[in-house]
Amino acid sequence: MRKLLHQPLPTFGTQFSEREIIAQLLSLDLSALDTTLPLEVVS
User: Fold this and answer.
1) What is the pTM assigned to this prediction?
2) Tens-place pLDDT, residues 1-43
3) Do 43 and 17 form a contact (C-beta atoms < 8 A)?
4) Dihedral, 11, 13, 15, 16 alpha carbons, nearest 10
5) Which residues sit opposite 40 in a β-bridge?
6) Which has the closest alpha carbon to 26: 38, 37, 39, 13?
7) Which of 6, 25, 26, 43 is most exposed, with minimal Cβ within 10 Å?
């Protein structure tokens, strides 16, 4: 018997403009963040 999983649609929240700080918090180089996409909370 197969069971299907149901995933709710994402909810988009706060957007952040401090790309340098977010990159540091995630231990990433700033160049790793795509500048064409917003930095935002998604749940």
Assistant:
1) 0.68
2) 888 999 999 999 999 999 999 999 999 999 999 999 999 999 9
3) no
4) -120
5) 15
6) 39
7) 6
